[in-house]
Amino acid sequence: MLGTFLSSIEVTIVSAAMPSIVEALGGLALYPWVFTTYILAQTVTIPIYGRLADLWGRRRTYAVGVSLFLMGSLLSGAAPSMEALVAARLLQGLGAGSLLPLTMTIFGDLYAVAERTRIQGVFSLVWGLSAILGPTTGGALVMAGSWRAIFLLNLPFGILATATILWLLPEPADRRRQRLDLGGMATLSLGLIALMVALMRPDERPGPAWPWALAAVAMLGAFLAIERRHPQPTVPLELFRDRVQATVNVAGVVMGVVLFGVVGFLPLFIQGVLGASPMWAGAALIPMALSWTVGSVLAGRLLYRFGFRGLVRTGAISMTLGTVGLSVAMRHPDPVLLAGALVLTGLGFGFCVSSFTVSVQERARPEHKGIATALSQFARSIGATVGVAVLGAIMTRGLGEGVDLDQLVADGLGSPELAALLEPAMVQVFAVVTGAGVTAGAVILLAFPTVRLRAAQREGRMMTAASEDTRQTSPERVGV
Asked: Which residues, at least 6 apart from 152, have a Cβ–Cβ distance to it below 8 Å?
């Protein structure tokens, strides 16, 4: 839970402080890459850490991941320029890839299915608490001291989490060693890097876009070929033959664009266009975070009553309406409209993500349950990686050429000159976010199949009763 808190607070606390960081360091053109490099590194390492956990054990893998994260945090806090901050965030992301996948893997080691279902409520509360503390703490630190403190804040949490894992976590005695898919990992990493370079601005990209795009297609094609032949691939392609898994991952990619579009760009709109303080810019994300927590808790309680399909359809409708409201709020700024749109968006994510996690776990074979769970997070990270870069390119194009943006930012966020440039750019950015939200909702409504829950409900009641009576719940797979 400490590691989860460390990972979840990072996104909101940095997004709240980013406008002030840009004001201090300059380099507005690199604004999206502070998020993109972090998300890219985190995305690529998610399956790698899953395999290393099988080879090295949970404790050592977790310690390595958190150590890299803390080293990146320290360098981020000492960054003298935006370029150095982007490089430090890359290192931070290489460590962050271990936190959430290993947390879910450890939950799988420690708890049977019924107990894991109950603990999801606690897991969601940790996300909600960090979402509240992140924006307000980030804004307060920027106003009271220095933005550098937001990165140093990670150190005590990371040290405590690592010490707790090394001291208390038992290792499974029957851990199986697996052959590491180095070729698949390498081609996946190179393909994603080439894709991101192809999406860069022409004045920042080395050479034209088309060679990078071709390299991305070639590397990702090689990745698919390797995965088909490898005996223990990083991503077993047979999982995508299941309609639930395929729908969850396709929708997850598009939902990643929505999520990090809101988290990455809404604080800039609040502070740069509306002229609010850094604290209010970060606090604007609280309605979405709280409603996400509420939706997640409700989904856990209502799952066996209304079924997977009923919950994800409700979430899809809520998310679609919320993203449409965000687009309207960009054109007609109103605090009530903006808060309502964020609440609907958060509720939609809470219902969908919780239902996605349980559904893919129960549809996967036991030997694929871990990678099936990781793939749902991996899909959202892929969407965020591509989405933030695309939205950043749209923002820079919307700002126009021949304008000294760094000088305008140095003069102060919220100035009339900068607000006049940012407002139409933000309208374009959130129009794309709305399109992504509508697309994800349509995929869920049209493609997510009906899943029978009678066996799961009966087995879940039996396991819950056994857990309460003997504290030795049966680990058998719940039928679907």
From this structure: 73, 74, 77
Radius of gyration of the chain from its Cα atoms, rounded to whole angstroms: 22
pLDDT tens track for 419-455: 777 888 888 899 999 999 999 999 999 999 876 654 4
Answer for the pair 260, 43: CB distance below 8 angstroms, yes or no. Answer: no
The tokens describing 284, both together, are: 């604007």
pLDDT at 95: 92
Model pLDDT, residue 395 = 82
How many residues would you count in the chain?
Answer: 480
Helix (H), strand (E), coil (C) string for the chain: CHHHHHHHHHHHHHHHHHHHHHHHHCCHHHHHHHHHHHHHHHHHHHHHHHHHHHHHCHHHHHHHHHHHHHHHHHHHHCCCCHHHHHHHHHHHHHHHCCHHHHHHHHHHHHCCHHHHHHHHHHHHHHHHHHHHHHHHHHHHHHHHCCCCHHHHCHHHHHHHHHHHHHHHCCCCCCCCCCCCCHHHHHHHHHHHHHHHHHCCCCCCCCCCHHHHHHHHHHHHHHHHHHHHHCCCCCCCHHHHHCHHHHHHHHHHHHHHHHHHHHHHHHHHHHHHCCCCCHHHHHHCCHHHHHHHHHHHHHHHHHHHHHHHHHHHHHHHHHHHHHHHHHHHHHHCCCHHHHHHHHHHHHHHHHHHHHHHHHHHHHHCCHHHHHHHHHHHHHHHHHHHHHHHHHHHHHHHHHHCCCCCHHHHHHHCCCCHHHHHHHHHHHHHHHHHHHHHHHHHHHHHHHHCCCCCCHHHHHHHHHHHHHHHHHCCCCCCCCCC
Q: Tell me the pTM.
A: 0.75
Q: Which amino acid belongs to residue 428? A: Q
Say if residues 72 and 125 touch (Cβ distance below 8 Å).
no
Rounded Cα–Cα distance for residues 66 and 3 (Å): 8
Q: How far apart are CA 429 and CA 392, in angstroms?
A: 8
Name which of 142-156, 185-199, 362-376 the model is least confident about: 362-376
- Can you tell me which residue has the tokens 């997510």? 448
Q: What is the pLDDT of residue 131?
A: 62
Q: Using alpha carbons, select from 298, 310, 349, 354 the residue that is nearest to residue 449.
A: 310
Residue identified by tokens 């997640």 is: 296
Residue-wise pLDDT tens digits, 96-129: 888 887 887 777 677 765 566 566 666 766 766 7
Q: Give the highest mean pLDDT range of 134-148, 284-298, 325-339.
A: 325-339
The 10s digit of each residue's pLDDT in 169-189 is 877 555 555 677 889 889 988
In the structure encoding, which two tokens stand for residue 334, read together?
A: 């109103």
Separation of alpha carbons 477 and 357, rounded Å: 15
> Which amino acid is it at 328?
V
